[in-house]
Prior knowledge:
By secondary structure, the protein is of the alpha/beta class.
Amino acid sequence: MTRVSVVAPAxxxxxxxxxxxxxxxxxxxxxxxDYEIVVVxxxxxxxTFLKLLDLRQSYPALKVVxxxxxxxxxxxxxxxxxxxxxxxxxxxxxxxxDPPELIPELLRRWRDGAQVVVARRRSRGEPLLRRxxxxxxxxxxHRYASVTDPPDTGLFCLIDKQVADVLRQMRExxxxxxxxxxxxxxxxxxxxxxxxxxxxAPRQSLAKLFRLAGDALFSFSYAPLRISLLVGTIxxxxxxxxxxxxxxxxxxxxxxxxxxxxxxxxxLFLGGLQLVALGITGEYIGRIYxxxxxxxxxxxxxxxxxxxxxxxxxxxxxxxxxxxxxxxxGLGRLGSEQG
Length: 339
Ligand code: UDP
Ligand code: MG
């Protein structure tokens, strides 16, 4: 029988996680497949982890990975992916904005042969400001990124094991799942759904969204560098023309230039421009520095419900620095496994 994994990151989701697991479990059971639900607790400060442990009593398919602190949605998704063992992996938010009832449809398209099935939002219930910021980002990203996804897609998708393996091998530190998924390629199908509004405040704050937008843009495009080059070129041409003009005026003695204002403006403007260009270059250099350090993308504190270490969930390039796997419903020992 084929095996399906659901991977969901959860940060401070104690209010929603029970319903999420219940609805997922029902959808998967009705689809008639062997399945596991891997919820990654991204260092929640509320009782998400305890809730999940509780839920394991009723849902044996539930597996929990707890990260050592809040790493962010993208690292949490990566952690979940590393632990998923399914022939198909469904990645979705744990806040029920990605309705579990869509799972059978995703599976159907996968069985029909698609290796990447992406859920696209027909509508999205979100506050206006958030929606506007997201639209602006998608517009810029779509225009300048080297590979793109349609703007109405999110995390929610199903990927075949083959695609999941490709994503697992991408070890970059600044991750943007949607970009990596588009980069991986493979044959793809779309499924449409209406995205409901979120119950409670978003965990992905606007600041986190901006950081994600930065990761996406700087990781998938050189547009910022090109823009600085372009602006620099235009300003330089303007400056040279102006200088020529001044020179001619001076030669012909038409008008003696007091000069100071011109000079000051030119110096300040060019100085500012150089700082912008340096800043953009610096952003890329900073990223290179972070990538070469090869720090773990996430760190696992506890693992509950997984078989003893050595299972295929832990690829050989992920050294385990201590044993922390627990098969029972209790807590795994604290360790510092890296991902
Ligand atoms: N999330 C996470 N770590 C974070 C922020 C969010 O794991 O630091 C999870 C969150 O619990 C949810 C999903 O990522 O399941 C999406 O978060 P949210 O609903 O806040 O963002 P949006 O729906 O606007 O993308
Ligand atoms: Mg959400």
